[in-house]
């Protein structure tokens, strides 16, 4: 049922003539008459009868007039509600992130964001790296915090910060004395790598392909396990400058390819084809600013000078200086 026809019916009933109703609704009299005719045919009822120069309601029309007014009122309320939602700063914002990000960043960010956007409830969904963008595409979450893909234009992103790819190994393995290792130097070594599904692993694998060698993978696991194995001398762990460890018996070197540091770029991603609600505005920028406080970079990641490496902790604050 067309609401325009109901609006026309109410206008004619209240004005008592087609000409006055047409003037009120700013349509032509023939168009108005066609709408009344279409409504009567749809309902199977005669709504008006002519008495002199006036149109008056039939008995059936009188009984339907109140219902039509009520329906039009509800429709107006629905429009107002929709407009309110489209401009509102109140709602539930759903964000997918990994367990490490939830553990390190969100405890303080949640307090900060609650002050910044008191009307927005931030709902976190812990998801694996391979699932986050799928959740965004399905509309299950508004944002995903993950490594920015280089070959997928479905998603828009706000860059958080880059992290260096690092090699961590035991000081007992006296193989290098620099803070920089070309990825080709890893060709024949047993490597401790993230799971193949990890976006960070894919960046490492891409560098291996460019260097045209197949990595000698000793084990695939999570960063904590890789660092423990590296400390015990079982291989060289590929980690990032976002990984942290309390172990201090590890040498750290930045991994490069053709003298360029290998990096992974973390970002807040969303589906560029799906409009975001008004209350989602500003979240990527707010989160990026907070990330800089939680993971401060002492200087831009750049190729440094080779020098004797000292045992050190892995820290996001120092990276691979």
What key attributes describe this structure?
Arc Repressor Mutant, subunit A, 321 residues, 2 domains, 11-stranded mixed β-sheet, single chain, 24% strand, alpha/beta
Following the backbone from N to C, one meets helices and strands in this order, namely: HHHEEHEHHEHEEEEHEHEEEEH
Structure classification: alpha/beta
Low-confidence stretches: 297-321
The radius of gyration computed from the alpha-carbon positions, rounded to a whole number of angstroms, is 33 Å
Distance between the first and last residues' Cα: 70 Å
- Tally of contiguous helical segments: 10
Question: Mind telling me the CATH class of the largest domain?
Answer: Alpha Beta
Judging from the principal axes of the Cα atoms, what is the shape?
A: rod-shaped
> Which fold name fills CATH's third level, the topology of the largest domain?
D-Maltodextrin-Binding Protein, domain 2
Q: How many strands?
A: 13
Strand content: 15-25%
**Mean pLDDT, nearest integer?**
81
Largest sheet: 11 strands, mixed
The structural domain count equals 2
Give the topology.
Layout: H1 3-15, H2 18-25, H3 29-43, E1 48-51, E2 54-57, H4 59-86, E3 91-97, H5 99-104, H6 106-116, E4 120-126, H7 132-138, E5 143-147, E6 155-169, E7 180-182, E8 190-193, H8 199-211, E9 216-220, H9 223-231, E10 236-240, E11 251-257, E12 260-261, E13 263-271, H10 283-294
Parallel strand pairs: 3-4, 3-5, 7-11, 8-9, 8-10
Antiparallel strand pairs: 1-2, 5-13, 6-10, 6-11, 6-13, 11-12
Helix pairs in contact: 1-2, 1-3, 1-4, 2-3
